[in-house]
Amino acid sequence: MNLKSMLCTTALVAAAATAANAQSDWSLSEAAAPYAGTTIDVVFLLRPGYEAIKEMLPEFTEATGINVNIIDHPYENALGEQVRDFVAGGDLDIALIDLVWIGNFAENEWIVPVDDIMAKFPELVDPDLNMDDFFPLVLNAFGGWNDTIYGLPFDNYSGLMFYNRCMLEEAGFDGPPETWAELKDVYGPALTGDGKYAFALQSKRNETQSADSFARMLWPFGGSFLDENFRSNLLSEESQAGLNFRQDLMQYMPDGIVAWDHAETVNGFAQGDVAMITEWSSFYSSVVDPDTSRVTDCVGIAPEPAGPAGRRPALGGFSLAVASQADEAEQAAAWLFIQWATSADNAVEYLERGGVPARQSAYDDPALAETYTFIPALLESWAEGVPEFRPRFAEWPEISEVVQEWGTRMMLGEVSVEEGAREIGTRMEAILEASGYYDGDRPLVQ
Amino acid sequence: MRDKTSGRTIFAFIGPSVIALALIGIAPLLYAAWTSLHFFNLTRLRQLRFVGLENYQTVLTDTAFWQAMGRTFFLLGTSLPLQLALGLGIALVLHQPGLTVVKTLCRLSLVLPMATTYAVVGLLGQVMFNQNFGVVNQLLGGADINWIGDPTNAFVMIIFWDVWQWTPFVALVLLAGLTMVPNEVEEAARLETKSWWVILRHVQLPFLVPGLVAVLILRTADTLKLFDMVFTLTRGGPGASTEFISLMIQRVGFRAFDQGLASAQAIILLAITIVLAQIYIRVFYKEV
Questions:
Q1: CATH assignment of A158-313+387-434, given 1.10.240.10, 3.30.300.180, 3.40.190.10, 1.20.1250.20?
Q2: What count of CB pairs under 8 Å joins A to B?
């Protein structure tokens, strides 16, 4: 089953359920009435998209009587907390799923497919759910695994280039670089000096290193983590070109870039020390907020530069799915919350409060793009993103740890790019072999 | 009858402690030993299976494990002598007669670093050693030293914080040892010689040895367990330059979710700790 047919199946189930409810004049309050007083538990991150939904939450609680208990975690702790909770049969009723966790959560059956939920609670399906309204790439990558949709996209990102228009103009440029090569060879020398840097690539040794730094340099150059046989592709000419490019580009980055996480990178840009960064769209609100940024009037946003293989922007984001460990009332309440939080009706408000919705209809109004200048670049990126930007299978957390260590050591020059890539490849294949991918026991799905 | 009653009484006294110890200490240890003999990955529980000593073999042949172990002992070998030297110096100063109020205040202030939560120390370190805005570079005359992003500097920073936090502990333990020296013995020694070194070596040091052994054992165990401060400060980076053994075990167990391998690492670490403690006791207690 391909993406199109998978989405069609879910859309058909949704259509059947919504048609029945449309005739019965469905309302959230009435649908939720049997579950009033139910409390559902969910992990949230400390990011703008989550603050946005928190601000909107009283409206949901008032309409439904359902209480949402939010447990805040930094990103780095969110996976561990949820895995331990699901393994122990804990309290979480909703899973917050980064796109690289979806295979893990789905294969362990910690989450319930959307079709099953809609079949179980047909009276709860919003007639306006409209699954076709989600960007197909985003719905598939964030919420889909192995031909099944589990979660609805909630906190959605694409990698974008944030550039300081004033610094670029001062250096004689009338726009951002179109290609990575141009960034390094033309913009790099012109914008680096006197304590200022042309570019900063967040590369701290955590998921930032594997996703934001390492993977970002593979795809535009035609590289990838795995080939079609699930063997390491890191020693291919294309992957090596990308990783070597990263080493060359470091001369135009601040010292100690291997210790820079998102906060340092966004701050470096917001303080005017760095002319260009490639960061998640969700940081838009931070760089245009006068309370946190000195460059609000100079912020320009463009899609990430293209490499020899084209534009392959970083793709990241989260979906919300109903947890299988929740009891029936909690599952029902959880579904109502997920449906509400990701609904087309709430999408524009969510955007205005700092979130990034995955609803196509939310971006229909051209006036929004004038206010939220990241929108055109975001939509262009979502048209060209790669779902397997990072493999989404259950083994990714283990592989990511390997990439984080050796990717950082490469950048520090402790090992050569080739040695580091070989080490990562060997360890990555050992992990995949232990999981049975090479015995034909498991489908080569990423 | 008397014997039976006596047995119950004995059990009533020691039973709760034994049960608590078994539940809190022994049971998790046995569970870790069981886990270490299995392929036990939290994200792949369906593949749970007995693998014998395979995890131990993996650990013992893993260069990264031994590098982390070496790094940990290097930290111990650099920070502990500094803590002992500085701690002894502080203890000797506070042991001098006079200035009672000042000394009391000093003793109290010595507790502050120890009372600071490890994670807070790490966060303080992030702010103070920030390359652009940190107070440390400001104090160094506006130096542009990259502390957190440079492998060597990051290691130096960890040593600094470890010494800052634990020198007071060493000082207080040694000060307690100095107060054990009988006044008349110390005064008699001062009449015999003016050399502070002779007094320290032949009069005070014998009373300090039990405290020093305790410090050695506790600080060795603490260093082997060192986690929170480094995790919040460098997260083991850059690269693997500050990945000490406990960070590695946490990474394998809770970020890669391989509980079996992490348990094998932890049990090997436990064995090393026990052996070291035995060596300390046998070598140093001989001198008492």
A1: 3.40.190.10
A2: 79
